[in-house]
Specification:
This protein is of the alpha+beta class. Helices cover 17% and strands 35% of the residues. The protein has 2 helices and 8 strands.
Length: 172
């Protein structure tokens, strides 16, 4: 039985494990799918491909490529991506028995991979900072593979990824 890898954050537990940064290019088939999604005006936030009961299941999460776009992701957006992405994945995976789900990030998405921060610049979020053992809320200004910068009451706060145990997008 062929298995595929799923990349997600290291789980937060009582030891305070940090949110992990996994390059999106390392996620299987992400590089094949991202240009298609981007060409439609969206960003591919998450791509998970796994097998269950002999069926290949795919979960794709999309957001607007323009982070300043005030409208949310609707059913028409998801359907548009689904129509173009499914045939591509069928060809790549050489399978026809595929169940695919395309969704929005949701209004209060739990960040699963620190690489996702880049998709949510200018959005409000909460991060659990292990150095203060508390949640910090602010607007995401910048993000890279080592740290994020939140705007909190007019002041920029740099938070290294190693200090972030959890992060959650807020409905803003």
């Amino acid at each position: 039985m062929k298995t595929s890898k799923t990349y997600i954050l290291r789980s937060f537990d009582k030891t305070g494990v940090a949110l992990e940064y996994v390059s999106l290019a390392e996620i299987p088939h992400y590089s094949d799918c991202e240009p298609i999604v981007f060409g439609l005006g969206y960003s591919l936030v998450e791509l998970r491909i796994f097998r269950t009961n002999g069926t290949t299941q795919i979960r794709a999460v999309i957001a607007h490529a323009d982070s300043e776009n005030p409208s949310g992701i609707g059913i028409d957006d998801c359907a548009k991506v689904h129509r173009l992405l499914l045939p591509r994945l069928e060809a790549i995976l050489k399978e026809q028995d595929i169940y695919m789900e395309v969704t929005s990030p949701g209004t209060e998405r739990l960040i699963k991979n620190a690489a996702e921060f880049a998709f949510f610049v200018k959005k409000y979020m909460r991060v659990y900072d292990t150095t203060v053992s508390d949640w910090i809320t602010g607007q995401l200004i910048r993000a890279d593979k080592e740290q994020i910068v939140l705007l909190i009451d007019g002041t920029e706060k740099i938070i290294p990824l190693d200090n972030i145990a959890k992060a959650k997008l807020l409905n803003s």
